[in-house]
Automatic annotation (TrEMBL):
Signal peptide: none annotated. GO terms for biological process: porphyrin-containing compound biosynthetic process. GO terms for molecular function: uroporphyrinogen decarboxylase activity. InterPro entries: Methanogen_methyltrans, UROD/MetE-like_sf, Uroporphyrinogen_deCOase. This is Uroporphyrinogen decarboxylase. Gene3D superfamilies: 3.20.20.210. The lineage of its organism: Bacteria, Pseudomonadati, Spirochaetota, Spirochaetia, Spirochaetales. Residues 6-78 form the Uroporphyrinogen decarboxylase (URO-D) domain. PANTHER family: METHYLCOBAMIDE:COM METHYLTRANSFERASE MTBA. It holds the Pfam family URO-D.
Length: 81
C-alpha cells in the first residue's frame, strides 16, 4: 500500500496503521532497514496525526530483538509531530 497516497486521499477521514513489512524488513532486515522503513512511513502518513506506526501484520517469534527495539526507538524519537 502507498501510505502517502492513502493519507492524501483519506487521511482526514480515517486513521492509518502499519505498513512496515513483517518479513522483508522486521524479520529479515537489519536495524538500519527498520529505521529507514519506519521513518518513511512516518514521513508518508504522520503529518496531521491519525497514523499509528506498526508492522503490516505482526512480529513473528523469530524477529530480531534489535529490530523491535529499533522500531520503538524510531517511534519515540522521530514520530513526534
Amino acid at each position: 500500500m502507498n501510505l502517502a497516497l492513502v493519507k492524501k486521499l483519506y487521511g482526514s477521514r480515517i486513521a492509518l496503521m502499519g505498513n512496515l513489512p513483517t518479513t522483508s524488513v522486521m524479520l529479515k532486515g537489519s536495524a538500519e532497514d527498520v529505521e529507514k522503513a519506519a521513518r518513511k512511513a512516518i514521513d508518508d502518513a504522520g503529518a496531521g496525526g491519525g497514523f499509528l506506526l506498526s508492522t503490516g501484520d505482526q512480529c513473528g517469534r523469530d524477529t530480531p530483538e534489535a529490530n523491535i527495539f529499533k522500531l520503538v526507538e524510531v517511534a519515540r524519537t522521530y514520530g513526534k509531530y
